[in-house]
Amino acid sequence: MVPPLSAESHEKSPPIVRIEEDWELALGAPDTGAESPQIRCVISPTRDLRSLHAVLTLNHRTEPIYESGGIQLQVWDGENPQASKSAGTTALLSHEGEVVRWTQVMRISDDKLVFEVVDGRSKSWGRFGFPGRLKLTAPTVRTDLSKYHPRVSWKYSEVEFGENRVKDFVLREVRAYGPDGLLWRGAGSSIE
């Protein structure tokens, strides 16, 4: 993987204005009675979760209260929830051997930090994350995403419940874009 730009190289490089992460969840045998598995997937513009970041919950929704099934995108500021948006489904993951794929996008646009899920595909949920459908924004003074690192996503994303129901949970690829296009891309890693 080509690593994110360091502070030294960033001064000579264009700003990063968009990050895309391609994720894949391969199931064994989900358990609808136990609402299992439940997944949490995180993306942050910094190397920690002390400021604005997004959380994607799969097979459960937790804001403002817990509800089983479906998909929910949340924006947090540190430990404080700011906003949430659910995809149109409340279905539980229910197909043995199912593979769920999606892309998480984080970008800067007109003094806003935009978090979005696009190009989601699943047997239980069908297609999800049509452009604009699973998107949240927050005001920001940030002008680039050069402090992003995929290790933060790897560290804080997890199978929260029902790990025995999951064969693999993988960040397949990460891409960083500047104002004029792709700056770097790299292979992801399995979440351990």
* Number of contiguous helices: 2
Helix content: under 10%
Q: Element order, helices and strands?
A: HEEEEEEEEEHEEE
DSSP strand tally: 12
Structural class determined from secondary elements: mainly beta
Radius of gyration: 16 Å
User: Biggest sheet, open or closed, and with what strands and sense?
Assistant: 7 strands, antiparallel
| % residues in beta strands | over 45%
CATH topology description: Jelly Rolls
Q: What is the averaged pLDDT score?
A: 91
Describe the structure.
The structure is a single chain. With 192 residues, this protein is mostly beta strands. The protein has one domain: Jelly Rolls. Helix content is 6%, strand content 51%. The protein contains two helices and twelve strands, in the order αβββββββββαβββ. It has helices at 7-10, 150-156; strands at residues 18-27, 38-43, 52-61, 67-77, 80-86, 99-109, 112-122, 126-128, 135-139, 158-161, 166-178, 181-187. Strands 1, 6, 7, 8, 9, 11 and 12 form a seven-stranded antiparallel beta sheet that branches. Strands 5-4-3-2-10 form a five-stranded antiparallel beta sheet. A hairpin with a 2-residue loop joins strand 6 (99-109) and strand 7. The protein is globular. The relative contact order is 0.27. The model is unreliable at 1-10 (pLDDT under 50).
